[in-house]
Give the backbone structure.
Amino acid sequence: MTLANKLALYFRASCASRSFHWRGLPLLPKRSLHSRAAYNSFIVWIADLKLDSAATIIDIGANHGDFAAAAGTMFPQAKIFLAEPLPRMQRHLEQLIREQNPAWRLWPFALGHEPGRFTLHVDDHNDAVGSLTGFSETYLKANPGIRPTATVECEVRTLDDTAAANQIGPVDLLKIDVEGFELEVLKGASAVLARTTAVIVEVSLIRKTGATNPLLATLEILTGHGFSIVEILPSLHDPHEPWRPCEFNVLARRTAARPVSAT
């Protein structure tokens, strides 16, 4: 991303947050941020969902915490739950919570459609990458810098069970970025989706092969739970076919009033 593009994104995020938003300004030290561009993009997306307020936010696939930071900028009073299975990212998030973000709560496990223990595929040289679905040949071609080098056994729970255990009722914003495991997360979250106002979910078409189109399946689940699709934003293009997007971020918002109590 060029400096001009970074500045344009920063100004969009500043308008969205209605502040000078110094944390996202290019050229200044990043402090606790990993990717300033991601942070600014998250602020713009959250604003596009037009939430009046948010008390409870869930960040599945928290990684370095950039989304949680953006959500905290937009809704400083919100309690934010972060799910992250990578041990090194857990240590990073624990430090951020301890030093800067007391309203964050870390869930040190993955989320899916059923509880158990699953193999997480990782790249030891890229701490932003970890996938329960593995790295398909198509994905590696589209991301030539990634090399799967190790696996980690991690605990997987369902979001419905986790929300019940934490006595979480209405959810204002749910973000899912789980490197191709998004359908499994959604399948284990029916009760939570019924009481969620807005969703941001990354959808990959190239993580694994299969007859099901992940984007269409995700849209079907969301609309089936009463959400309207706000935006579908391409986030990755195949370098061999640059006209073809292969990953998307879907922004969705509930159109009808959600139930006020947990089920």
Q: What stands out?
A: The domain at 3-254 is CATH 3.40.50.150 (Rossmann fold). The chain has a mean pLDDT of 87. The two ends are 44 Å apart (CA to CA).
